[in-house]
Amino acid sequence: xxxxxxxxxxxxxxxxxxxxxxxxxxxxxxxxxxxxxxxxxxxxxxxxxxxxxxxxxxxxxxxxxxxxxxxxxxxxxxxxxxxxxxxxxxxxxxxxxxxxxxxxxxxxxxxxxxxxxxxxxxxxxxxxxxxxxxxxxxxxxxxxxxxxxxxxxxxxxxxxxxxxxxxxxxxxxxxxxxxxxxxxxxxxxxxxxxxxxxxx
Length: 200
Ligand SMILES: [Zn+2]
What we know:
By secondary structure, this protein is α/β, with parallel strands linked by helices. Helices cover 42% and strands 10% of the residues. Among the domains are: 48 residues, Orthogonal Bundle (Helicase, Ruva Protein, domain 3); 91 residues, Dna Topoisomerase Vi A Subunit, Chain: A, domain 2 (3-Layer(aba) Sandwich), CATH 3.40.1360.10. It has a four-stranded parallel sheet with strand order 4-3-5-6. A two-stranded antiparallel sheet has the order 1-2. β1 and β2 form a beta hairpin. Bound molecules: zinc ion.
């Protein structure tokens, strides 16, 4: 359904509905909310968006999101430089940081290997990773790519690449989620949990 005679409103709704997790109905609610709020709400949104567009850039060292040359994590001298965690996207850095248990640093690969979609190693940040390892190798690399076919392939490739530079290569454990019940797990998750069991 389109709105007759209101092409500007229609365009705004179309733009909102392109956001992940936002359907047509939510997009309409967002547009009507803005219409009701008036000029101040538009200015606040426009200001925030253009500031984000101007200021956010990739960290020169790890490719995480940053507003300076270095991101907040690379710029923090209290972080443990003996640990380096490889992730696919900046949002993965945020996810791990939310758990506030990891004090090492990161390298954001910028995606995962996917030969069918034409994503080869040269499309990811492996060259800058290798340059980093040559200059300042950590003791341990943590492979924290997603537990998908492509994520596993990426971890496998990364492991071979970093092997000459580090003492320890680890992969995030996979298995039973907290609060999960065994009878509802799929076979592959249960298999991973069984294979990854540890001494209690
Ligand atoms: Zn960084």
